[in-house]
Amino acid sequence: MSEKPYHIHGEKRQSRWLITCDHATNRVPEWVNGGDLGLPPEDMERHIAFDPGALGVTLALADRLDSPAISSDFSRLVIDPNRGADDPTVLMKLYDGSVIPANRAAFAEEKARRMERLWHPYHDALETLAARRSDTVICAVHSFTRQLRGRPPRPWQVGILYSYDERLTRPLIDLLRQDAALGAWVEDSFGERWCVGENEPYGGHLDGDSIDTHALQHGRLNVLVEIRNDLIRTPQQQQAWAERLAPLLDRALAIADGV
Questions:
Q1: Are 141 and 65 in contact (CB under 8 A)?
Q2: What are phi and psi of 21, to 5 degrees?
Q3: Angle between helices 235-256 and 54-65 (to 10 degrees)
Q4: Using CB atoms within 10 A of its CB, is residue 115 exposed (0-12), middle (13-18) or buried (19+)?
């Protein structure tokens, strides 16, 4: 693992956009239980450990928007950078049917250690990037699994999440749905009818999460994009999503700005 618990791509770029990827990797630092959370390899490849495909989309999107991007360099199961410091799920002990052995006895002292070495440096770096301009716009990229254990398949290919600030999300949702209606979207490998989720598959607000901390609390325009992870498995799929999303994000921003 690199010395810093995050990576910055295109740090000197001056675009208003800032692309973030909170759950970019499934890496476990060596100093956390010898680099092993005690889960089988197949669990560490699942959505419980990171957001598969999201990093590739993040980097490709940042290149198309000529913007910087920041990504975490530690698994969400070590400490979750998209949870507030006081959120009980910031250090998960059970997730989607899998018990995380190395976290079962990770109490206050261990949580504080992981926060200090991983969570705080990531958020400090994210805020430094966000503060480089007074009109920064944050786009957070995540991915979600097609089906949780014991649950029905999710019908959405992409979801747009938001809280009370709809300035950017409302036009983007409308543009996505128009684009899908025209049949101009990436072909769905399951042959399903295209479905754009609004605050699906999750609600759009958690106190202290990344968007709340770095966007809502500062009045910054923001959007959180969730893409179903089976649709962004390959670099080609990730590039295709970035190519489609970039112009729609720019158009949505122009609408939000009243241009």
A1: no
A2: -135, 95
A3: 50
A4: middle
- By CB atoms closer than 10 A (0-12, 13-18, 19+), residue 72 is buried
Distance CA 172, CA 152 (A): 27
Domains parsed from the chain with CATH numbers = 6-256 (3.40.630.40)
Residue 220: what residue type?
R
Token representation of residue 91:
């250090």
Residue 66, token pair as written in the block: 């000529």
Q: Find how far residue 232's CA is from the centre of its chain.
A: 13
Residue type, 223: V
**What was the pLDDT predicted at 227?**
97
Q: What is the pLDDT of residues 48-61, one digit of tens each?
A: 999 999 999 999 99
Instruction: Show the tokens assigned to 24.
Output: 């970019």
- Residue-wise pLDDT tens digits, 117-152: 999 999 999 999 999 999 999 999 999 999 888 788
DSSP string, 184-207: -SPPPTT-PPP-EEES-SS-S--T
Contact 148, 192 (CB under 8 A): no
Q: Does an H or E element contain 175, and which? A: helix 169-181
Measured from the Cβ of residue 118, the count of other Cβ atoms closer than 10 Å reads 24
Type and span of the H or E element at 69: strand 69-72
Which residue, 241, 223, 244, is CA-closest to 233?
241
What span, in angstroms and rounded, lies between the C-alpha atoms of 138 and 238? Answer: 19
pTM score, whole prediction: 0.94
